[in-house]
Amino acid sequence: MLRAGGPRHRAYGGAVRLDVLLRYPGDPQRVAQLLADPAVLDRLLTASDALSHEVDVQGGPEGRFVVTIERVLPTDELPEMARRFVGASMRLRQVDTWEAPAADGSRTGTTELQVPGAPVTATATTGLRPVRTGVVPGRGVHTEHSVSGTLTAAVPLLGGKIERAAEEPVVRALRDQEREIGQLLA
Question: What is the residue extent of each domain of the chain?
């Protein structure tokens, strides 16, 4: 079930479904500026479990932009069977593509995650949507950031266990992003 601001997940057809809603105390344009800022992304990744990372941003928040993140993560939280596939660490490639903003500041996008050399992928649609929380026009706006997609591990017999093990770190990374960006906007 969807919990307020929390993940909804269920295994189906060999994939784990992820639906996460993040909230930021600022308008979508300001959130997009932070999501397109290499220094902010570096800060987020440095605060994460990543052993190393690289960030590339093409375009900017005034229009369409693409963020590519390559990071190396420890695998100590994965089940032993999953570590046999990827070793003590794994490389994760993330590509976030954000379309230009609509007139109200909202925007849509996609996220793709791949583990090179392993049959693990995630794809999601994303969105930033302004939500008015005050009665004065232009004030009291926060942003809802929706992430809705699937996490798939195409490994016979073990795929479901790998998917469920990978789900928690993905949701935790999103919650960490929500907290860090929220602090920058406060």
Answer: 11-185
Q: What is the pLDDT of residues 144-153, one digit of tens each?
A: 999 999 988 8
The secondary element (H helix, E strand) that includes residue 178 is helix 159-185
- Distance between CA atoms of residues 111 and 128, nearest Å: 13
Residue 98 CB neighbours (<10 A) = 23
CA 52 → CA 7, 23, 47, 94, distances in Å? 27, 27, 11, 14
- With CA atoms as reference, report the closest residue to 124 among 156, 153, 151, 143: 151
CATH topology of domain 11-185: Alpha-D-Glucose-1,6-Bisphosphate; Chain A, domain 4 (3.30.530)
Q: Model pTM?
A: 0.84
- Per-residue confidence (pLDDT) for residue 74, from 0 to 100: 86
One-letter amino acid at 11 equals: A
Is the predicted pLDDT of residue 121 greater than 80, yes or no?
A: yes
Structure tokens at 175: 């919650």
